[in-house]
């Protein structure tokens, strides 16, 4: 097993990113409401009007978010594995895989939340910046 004190900084950064994704996935699976207070505001409606027009929407969205949470959790577990086992060994393809995974997960999430003017957009920029920091640390170590 790899000694965590001997892990490169990039691996430690990606361990944080991976655990963040695991926690976010669990939040989406267990706690996230189908509609956040910002959602009706973005849609230009009210909770009451949305519920009246689409009575099954919240039940359906709840299931959609559980699926999304499962994918987040899975991505987090794989990120932890990559950080713990592959980054320290500089396995071929690890950088490319983490770059694509970061762009498709926390990068896209952050960008969309800025497009939506989400209340959480600045907070959700942090994981994307942390991911970029991990990639930069990996490249710097070369």
Overview of the molecule:
With about 140 residues, the chain is mainly alpha-helical. It has one domain (about 5-140). The protein is built from six helices and no strands. Helix 1 packs antiparallel against helix 4, helix 4 (about 55-85) packs antiparallel against helix 5 (about 95-115) and helix 5 packs antiparallel against helix 6. The longest helix has about 30 residues, at about 55-85. The model has no long low-confidence stretch (mean pLDDT about 95).
Rg is 18 Å
What proportion strand? under 5%
Instruction: State the end-to-end distance.
Output: 23 Å
Helix content: over 70%
Global structural class: mainly alpha
Global morphology: elongated
- Overall domain count: 1
DSSP helix count? 6
Query: Taking all residues together, what is the mean pLDDT?
Result: 94
Parts with pLDDT < 50 across at least 5 consecutive residues: none
The topology string of helices and strands comes to HHHHHH
Largest sheet: none
The number of distinct β-strands equals 0
